[in-house]
Design brief:
The structure holds two protein chains of two kinds. Chain A is an all-alpha fold. Chain A is 80% helix and 0% strand. Classes of the chains: A mainly alpha, B alpha/beta.
Chain lengths: 286, 286
């Protein structure tokens, strides 16, 4: 097969066109928000919010409401509950998160199991189906994604300062608490709109892996976002074509390509590369 | 912004400021645990004040209180003529080195530029004047050559130089510095203290916590002794007063005769895990 045909043939299918656009949008959106997730250590929270949306998705499905709305409501309710429990219960924050997200997820599965005819669709929610996205979903994804990216771009210097040095930023007059809530809200939106494409279980990989890979390669915050986005977009394209030609799951293919990039950066990366011969900081301090 | 507007703070008449910082009967703490009780303190413009005391004495708490990062339980705090935080753009806060994520993808230049963010306002990007200030601050601390390096690649002394440059770039009237000369070599300590002395001569107020009693006695104008309360405030040479030191450090300090008094402190960082009251001494204060 000729190379042009190899790339163009799958795009004759509408589901591949929509799927490719959706995978690129989700990939870039998750990569940008993932930069904050990685630098602020929010990976576990991201995973938790993603699982916590499940009962909301199921209820929205049952009553015929938009899935995004149901997922978002569930995510917000569980986030508030986590805050209350960790404050009142004198538990470590990650313990409260662990208890509540697992509980919420179990509730979602329980609800889902009552729908006898649709149990087979459970897997769709869990691992996603980027090739099943319709034009309506795609439009919502594009609009919400554009809003998130525009906010991050407008507040990039404030978000950088507040993420790097919250105390110093607050002392210089930046509204650090408000920025923190805003960041969590943007993360929540990102997760909810990404679930349909990559599924509840693998959203966290889309958030963490490209950003973590970028951190191994570059030394500037802005560069980290750009490199993470480029890696995520490349992985979306390669993963989707692999899924088409090899007839394997699309979300898993994209995540595995991202993981492969990470391993390559870990081994050959200029900053922490295992094969890098530059004397590292640790040996310099020792 | 015109260039001379950026120098407004420097040309402000000193007579307009009676005291830069004033605390009256202030108590503050974390959760249920008090950290400082009934502290009254006045700092005049142009002062170079060292805050000394053992670990956990409330030195950092005092700085956070003045920076507006902590709300007092009782008493009143006035900073630059208003409540803490009301004049945030005229205050520069330097966090302890342990509070900083040194793996963060940010360069020396970017860190120093953060000093300008409070002045710029939300959503506005740095301009020519800001870049000029950043460059001047980097030159003042002797770090202009390292502008493009990632902060984690610097030595301990260079890291403190960069954060002091960030404070300088903010062109503040009040410096709140948490251990600016801890863990740095003698040369860096001299350089940084020279910079702070010059700022104080220009009417700026400097409040810095330190574990280095020799430095406090020799390079600062004033000293505040803190140990859960304000033990004393007075001229910096009081730091060598055996009675005050015993009261502040609870007897765990010893001045050896000769050399103008060599200090032996039983309160270095790495003894946090040591059983309370167990006697052990160091050869040198550092």
């Amino acid at each position: 097969m000729d190379p042009i045909g190899f790339l163009a043939d799958p795009l004759a299918f509408r589901f591949m066109q929509y799927g490719l656009v959706a995978a690129l949008l989700v990939g870039v959106l998750c990569a940008v928000m993932g930069t904050f997730v990685v630098l602020k250590g929010l990976a576990f929270i991201g995973d938790a919010v993603s699982h916590a949306t499940f009962p909301g998705l199921v209820i929205a499905y049952l009553v015929g409401a938009p899935l995004y709305i149901g997922g978002a409501i569930a995510a917000v309710l569980v986030s508030i509950a986590i805050g209350v429990v960790s404050r009142r219960g004198r538990l470590r924050f990650d313990t409260s998160v662990g208890v509540l997200f697992a509980g919420s997820f179990a509730f979602g599965i329980l609800l889902f199991s009552t729908i006898k005819n649709y149990v087979a669709d459970l897997i769709g929610y869990l691992i996603g189906n980027v090739l099943g996205i319709g034009i309506g979903d795609l439009a919502q994804l594009a609009i919400l994604g554009a809003i998130v990216l525009a906010v991050v771009l407008f507040l990039r210097k404030e978000l950088l300062f507040a993420t790097f040095d919250p105390m110093g930023a607050a002392a210089s007059g930046l509204p650090v608490a408000a920025l923190e809530y805003l960041l969590l809200a943007l993360l929540g939106v990102t997760i909810v709109v990404s679930i349909q494409a990559v599924g509840i279980i693998m959203v966290v990989a889309m958030l963490v892996t490209p950003a973590a890979t970028a951190q191994l390669i570059v030394v500037r915050f802005g560069q980290m976002m750009v490199v993470a986005s480029v890696l995520a977009a490349t992985a979306a394209v390669i993963g989707l074509y692999a899924s088409f030609y090899l007839n394997v799951a699309s979300g898993a293919s994209i995540v595995l390509v991202e993981t492969l990039f990470f391993v390559i950066a870990l081994v050959f990366g200029p900053r922490t590369g295992l094969l890098s011969r530059t004397p590292g900081r640790r040996s310099a301090l020792a | 912004m015109r260039t001379d507007a950026a120098f407004g703070a420097t040309t402000r008449p000193l007579v307009a400021r009676g005291s830069d910082v004033s605390l009256e009967g202030v108590s503050v703490g974390y959760g249920q645990r008090p950290a400082l009780t009934d502290v009254s303190l006045t700092v005049r413009p142009g002062s170079l004040l060292a805050v000394i005391g053992p670990n956990g004495a409330g030195k950092s708490t005092l700085l956070k209180l003045i920076a507006g990062l902590l709300k007092p339980w009782s008493g009143s705090v006035t900073v630059l003529g208003g409540p803490p935080g009301s004049a945030a753009r005229r205050v520069a806060y330097l966090p302890q080195a342990e509070a900083v994520d040194w793996e963060f993808p940010v360069t020396v230049e970017e860190v120093v530029a953060m000093g300008r963010y409070g002045r710029l306002g939300i959503g506005r990007q740095p301009g020519a004047v800001d870049r000029e200030r950043v460059q001047a601050a980097l030159e003042t601390v002797g770090m202009a050559d390292a502008a493009g390096r990632q902060i984690g690649a610097l030595s301990g002394g260079q890291r403190r130089r960069v954060f002091l440059a960030r404070a300088l770039a903010a062109e503040p009237d009040l410096y709140l510095l948490d251990e600016p000369v801890t863990g740095v070599d003698a040369r860096t300590q001299e350089d940084l203290m020279d910079v702070l002395e010059a700022e104080a001569r220009n009417g700026k107020t400097v409040i810095a916590t330190t574990h280095d009693l020799i430095c406090a006695a020799q390079r600062f104008h004033q000293a505040a002794f803190v140990n859960g309360r304000l033990v004393a405030q007075g001229p910096a040479d009081l730091v060598l007063d055996q009675r005050l030191l015993s009261e502040t450090y609870g007897g765990h300090v010893l001045i050896l005769p000769g050399d103008g008094g060599r200090l032996v402190l039983d309160d270095a960082h790495h003894h946090d895990q040591a059983p309370g009251g167990e006697p052990h001494y160091h050869d040198e204060a550092r």
